[in-house]
């Protein structure tokens, strides 16, 4: 149940594109045609599925405060978490390179459809973002980390697929000239994000679950501050 | 600008308007949108990117002849990651609250495409001084958009600027609130960032017809 909940939560509520704006650059650049969008989306799912659990292991056994205790008593107090950016990005870059080589060797047809997108992915913020959110949300087990990677990947896939389909159709509409292309894509994405916000209450029956995402938390705290001020003023 | 030749000053001024990294080159959008609910966060983010871009471009440009082209992406990522760790630690030391608020988005400067994009497109082929100017220029262009978006979102969303209540007090009904003005809480939610950037693009392209896409 926990797994299923995290899975749907990472697809809809904490959708990479609509809730946290990760992977926006490639989302905008590669969404002109549905077929290329599907290729990139599939590659993102795949890489997230591999790198999030891998970085979870790295975080758990090397980076966290006290994670090195398996090396012996002397290492129990080490805290290497300041190295996490560099370690995560190195893992991602190497994994992407490795995946590219393996796929090329064993499945040339898959390589032809995914191959050109793989190098792009190393610098896709959605991938590093997945690992960093995994770390900051303190996901507890390896299984959950895998599910989180898969769910986030699928969420990103859905988003790029939807916008690519809309962009193919919007060519036949008369958009004001200065908005054509990039401008209207931004505004549509904004509207889609508003739509996705309605998933917020899905898992908890309307409870305030969405407050997990960091920027929402920031807003909530400012809202709470206002509330505090209000109550203070009332007093 | 006596210090800079005409060509050099173009490097700085171009990205501010007609070749803006966000609205024209479509680079570095991810972080631009997520942290702009408050002006302060936008300013801190712009300064961080300015630092990373300026120094990173110089470093890459200095070692550009030694990097084997096959592994250049990993080398570039390592350079950026090291610089971002410095920024992150400095923020944690001197502005802890703010660094909590920016959370993972400081780390995401690493994969900000604007940085990799400038490394690839400029620093790998130009000397350190010109690369430095290019980095500063592009980071400034990025910062300008961030600050504009942050300005409007904070002003319209919570009626404050940098935390100062510029429109009066919503609870005691002073200033604008006395005549029935209400804050638009929707501006604080993330989708509005996208729409505000969309509108900026609209304004910019109406003013400069050459930028309109087919």
Draw up the topology in text.
The complex is a heterodimer of chains A (235) and B (214).
Chain A lengths: L1 H12 L2 H5 L3 H6 L4 H30 L20 H23 L1 H7 L3 H4 L3 H12 L5 H29 L11 H16 L16 H21 L1
Helix pairs in contact in A: 1-9, 4-5, 4-8, 4-9, 5-6, 5-8, 8-9
Chain B lengths: L5 H8 L15 H6 L4 H24 L9 H23 L1 H7 L1 H4 L5 H9 L6 H31 L1 E2 L2 E2 L24 H18 L7
Antiparallel strand pairs in B: 1-2
Helix pairs in contact in B: 1-8, 3-4, 3-8, 4-5, 8-9
Report on the architecture of this protein.
- The complex is a heterodimer of chains A (235) and B (214).
- Chain A contains eleven helices and no strands.
- Mean pLDDT of chain A is 77; it is low at 205-235.
- Chain A has one domain.
- The termini of chain A are far apart.
- Chain A has 235 residues and is mainly α.
- Chain A has helices at 2-13, 16-20, 24-29, 34-63, 84-106, 108-114, 118-121, 125-136, 142-170, 182-197, 214-234.
- Chain B is mainly α and 214 residues long.
- In chain B, 61% of the residues lie in helices and 2% in strands.
- Chain B has nine helices and two strands.
- Chain B has a two-stranded antiparallel ribbon with strand order 1-2.
- In chain B, α1 packs parallel to α8 and α4 (72-94) crosses α5 (96-102).
- The model of chain B has no long low-confidence stretch (mean pLDDT 79).
- At the A-B interface, α2, α3, α5, α8 and α10 of A face α2, α4, α6 and α9 of B.
